[in-house]
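I hope you will forgive my troubling you with a question about protein structure. Here, with my thanks, is the record as I have it:
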Amino acid sequence: VVAVPLAEERQEAAPAPAQDWSARLGVTPTPDDGTRLSPRSRELWDESTRPTRPVPETGADYDATSRALGQHLVDVHDQLRAELGRLRDLIDQVRAGTLSAGDARSAINQMTLRQNNWSLGAYCASYCRVVTQHHTLEDTSVFPHLRAQEKELEPVIDRLTEEHHVIHRVLNDVDTALVEFINNPGDFAPLQEAVDVLTDTLLSHLAYEERELVEPLARYGFYEGQVRALRR
């Protein structure tokens, strides 16, 4: 496994399409700033080939329900981003020897993903499960619903599904690196590399998904009948 570069690399993010709908809807998708921590992440997919849905009609009508539905995807992703940041910070502190087991227990007890007993492995495994569950829900429920509502979304949804499979493999790499770390706790390089690749791919994917799906979700909801039920 390649060790982590000391300096962060920046990769030019794909230009976002015109998003006049964002201002009218009142929901801002999280942008991808192009930061990449590991060269390997660029080998997993080509961001320049990501499909983009047609620009929505300027006359689309949004209300408070639309805004809440679009914002919900951003909020869920924000939780994943925040927990990923805490996971990275935990690894940094344990590696530096600045965090004791007792302090780590206290820190993790304040996180969304709580553990009864402090364990770096348990926390990483729990986070990986949450990401997998999120993607599974999208693949089996949200995506089929959006496909049925708007045929033009199919290329985007196909690509997002493919990226879910890639991220699943990246999560498996994190699990493998955890096993290596348990067997050799003095070597953080494989675990750091695996988490860096997870960071690169997940943050890039979440930004792309928000860019493409916040507006359709605002119009169609996450499942059949949701918008109608919320507006009653």
